[in-house]
Amino acid sequence: KASGALTIPATIEGNPVTSIYGPYWQARGEGAFSKCSNLTSITIPDSVTSIGRGAFYCCSSLTSISIPDSVTSIGYMAFAGCTSLTSITIPDGVTSIDRDAFGSCRSLTSITIPNSVTSIGEDAFWRCTSLTNISIPDGVTSIGERAFGECTSLTNITIGNSVTSIGERAFGGCTSLTNITIGNSVTSIGGWAFDNCSSLTSITISDGVTSIGHAAFAACESMNAVTFLGDAPKVKNDDTFKYSSSIIYRKPEAKGWGDTFGGRPVKLISEKP
């Protein structure tokens, strides 16, 4: 029932504090401050190297947190449900953001992800409904399932040049999304990856993409142009662009194209209005 600000000491009885655990997940002894609903701010010392599973889960009054440079990993649901948290800076030492680490942080408007991060886990920022834009740095190689799903205020995404795969439903339900830049290293786009991105009007897909999953761009009702810079990628069926009026544009020298693709007509880039 503690309330207010929390300062985690660097040492306790002369011993350095390096990890934070607690009773929420009883079998694993994690969730140290979960459901401390009156906690408003946290100071974490430089000695801490990891923030464990559910460490601050559902701390619904938490508005700010400073994560020190010593932290290298942020665990599953570490800050999930922190509905008053408005911004977060992830330090340069962090290499992985686990599943649902910031899920349902509905007041979060700003995230800074450093180049040191190599993977963004499933549901990492799922339903962060106030988040308006995100830049995924070149260090990231994979974006997990639903990583930014249902971020309904997200308008712009820049995906770095090291990302090779975009997971299923990674940006599904981002209904305000109008602009996407996809890096040149992406080879696969998962099923429903951009499903129901109803404000998206156009997209350019790099020549490295070789496969697109089921209904990847379904229900993108405003999308009128999809430009492919390479050969026709593999698709499972004609549901890729279901419920959209997209026209597919391709280069004249590209291979594997027919008159239609994913259920939509195909034209040359020179025919774009």
Give an overview in words.
The chain has 273 residues and is an all-beta fold. The chain has no helices and 25 strands. It is 0% helix and 26% strand. A ten-stranded parallel beta sheet has the order 4-6-8-10-12-14-16-18-20-22, with no helix packed on it. Strands 19-21-23-25-24 form a five-stranded mixed beta sheet, with no helix packed on it. Strands 1-5-7 form a three-stranded parallel beta sheet, with no helix packed on it. The N and C termini lie far apart (63 Å).
Give the helix/strand class.
mainly beta
Structure summary, number of beta strands:
25
Q: How do the helices and strands follow one another from N- to C-terminus?
A: EEEEEEEEEEEEEEEEEEEEEEEEE
Strand fraction equals 25-35%
Question: Share of helix among residues?
Answer: under 10%
For the biggest β-sheet, the strand order reads 4-6-8-10-12-14-16-18-20-22
Low-confidence stretches: none
Straight-line N-to-C gap: 63 Å
Overall 3D shape = elongated
Give a short account of the largest sheet.
10 strands, parallel
The whole-angstrom Rg is 21 Å
Please state the average pLDDT score. 91
Number of H- or I-type helical stretches: 0
Task: Name the features.
273 residues; elongated; 5-stranded mixed β-sheet
Give the helix/strand layout.
Layout: E1 4-7, E2 11-12, E3 15-16, E4 19-20, E5 39-43, E6 50-51, E7 64-66, E8 73-74, E9 87-89, E10 96-97, E11 110-112, E12 119-120, E13 133-136, E14 142-143, E15 156-159, E16 165-166, E17 179-181, E18 188-189, E19 202-205, E20 211-212, E21 225-228, E22 234-235, E23 247-250, E24 260-261, E25 264-268
Parallel strand pairs: 1-5, 4-6, 5-7, 6-8, 8-10, 9-11, 10-12, 12-14, 13-15, 14-16, 15-17, 16-18, 18-20, 19-21, 20-22, 21-23, 23-25
Antiparallel strand pairs: 2-3, 24-25
